Amino acid sequence: MKFILYYSNFCQHSKKILLFLSRSKLKDDIHFICIDQREKTPNNKVNIILPNGKRVLLPPNVTEVPALLLLHQGNNIIVGGQIMKQFENMNKAIDAKATNNNMEPLAFSLDEMSGMSDTYSYLDMTSEQMTAKGNGGMRMLHDFVSLDHVDLIETPPDDFEPNKAKETDYTQLLNQRK
User: Positions of the region Disordered (predicted)?
Assistant: First the structure.
């Protein structure tokens, strides 16, 4: 986890951030801690009471919500609108990486995604081996098979009777239920 988000269910700004994160993959890198239930300890520290009953110490530098604790950046805290800017920049970086900075999926390309043959040959093959007089490049059969190739598919015998209910079984069942 890279972040801890402190939020309140009573804060509109927190709700906006939670809604944004619910639609983003960023939520996988975030611990969410609701501060609505908390208690003050005898030594004037604040504990957050989690839904499972456990207590977590609220960092003293968290004075408002929403607050984002940056675990991998020196435990710095950002608040308010800075949180949305942080997440929007991170989302843009994720989108750019996923689309190779095109910001759109790659289009179909005849050069890269199709073809009737390999776009390469083996270095140890002579030009005669690649012609119709030779073996015509039979060594490079990756997408095709030769005409005399036989593929066998194992199928059930012709006398196979499926193990399914017959129409008469359904009508008998309906008559029994009446």
Answer: 156-178
